[in-house]
Structure formats: structure tokens, C-alpha cells
Specification:
Structural class: alpha/beta
Largest sheet: 5 strands, mixed
Strand content: 5-15%
Number of helices: 8
Amino acid sequence: MVKNTETPSRSTKSFLCIPTLTPTLHRLTVIQYHDVDATDNDVKGIFSMFLRVFHEIRMHEDLAMGEIYIIDLERIKFSVISRLTPILFKKVGFVLEKIHSSRMHALYFYKAPTVFHSALLLFKSFLPKKLSDRVHSYQTLDEIKKHVPVELLPCDYGGQQKSIKELQSLWKQKIFEYKNRFDLLETMKVDESLRPDKLKNDEILGYYGNFKKIDTD
């Protein structure tokens, strides 16, 4: 492995886990975009950071039957939405289907602006039906409370948990416990010089690839 001088942002302002599991033993995660700075709208970076930080820690400490996400888009900037490209949606869909399909129990977008609805339909088109049916968009807390127990929501959303600010502070403390590990991960990348050369066809050793039988009339 060799060091990578590029160090992505490790801000935790937009992500927090609820410490209490749901009655069905799912973990609730709340994601907000109002703290994402206008000069730091790299959506791909935010998504990859979320996966690395959240699941790196929880892989060691958490046990849950699945994931429930609430993504608050009330104050999302248009500059963020404009970066939601089909290629990005396809990559996110691949991760959810191939890696986290058994873990995502539900995904709720809250107060998404009208301009986001087309992007949401595009995003769902890249998901298999079983995952697409788990993605919803709601404009009121009453709609979300039909699916998420009130005692698990932050008090900012009329729930019984600590405020978002307090929960973020607790989560930041947890991340700093793993500081050395994240510092190491952020400076590592693949050393391509160690990658084996591609196999070559040879009349004696044989030919590589897939061969299918073709029936002809």
C-alpha cells in the first residue's frame, strides 16, 4: 500500500445514529443536509464518507437487524441536487442492492423540494422493486411517525430522544475514538504496480475467457 495525499472531509454534522433500536431491532439513522457548506457539495464524497465512517464503527460495535434512514432535505441547496447524476444513482443503487440490500429496511426522504422529485424517481428506477418499495418521500412528521416510533425521533422532530445537536456531539466523540484508524484508511490506496498482469492466450497453455456453445441449423 502507498500513501494518498488527498484527505477527504470527515465532518459529522449531517449524520447521526439514534442509540436506541426500534422494536423490530432496526437502527435509525438521521441525515440532514442543511449543514453541508455550499463549497463542499461533493455528493459522492459525502456518500462514501457516510459508508466508511458509519459502517466502519458499527461493524465493530453495533448489532441490528437492518437500517432505517430519514434524510431531511428541507434546507438542501440546489447545487447539491444538481450533482445527483444518473451515474451516481446507479452506483448508489449497486451498493444498496449488492452490499446493503438485506440491511436497508426503509428510506424516508423528509420535506424534499419539488425539484428533487424527478431525481427521486430516477433514483428508484435504478433499484430493484424490493428496494424501490422501501423508498418513500413525506412532507410531514405525522407521516413519518406512522412508520417510526416517536420515542426514537430526536426532540427536534417532536420525538423523545436528545436533540440533534446533542446526538451529533455524542457521535463525534465516538468517531474520535477511531481517529487513528480513519487517519490510516484515508492515506491508503491500491498500489497498481503490484497488480498481476492480465492473462494472455497461448496455443499451448490455452485460451482464457468464456465460451458458449452455439447451435446452428
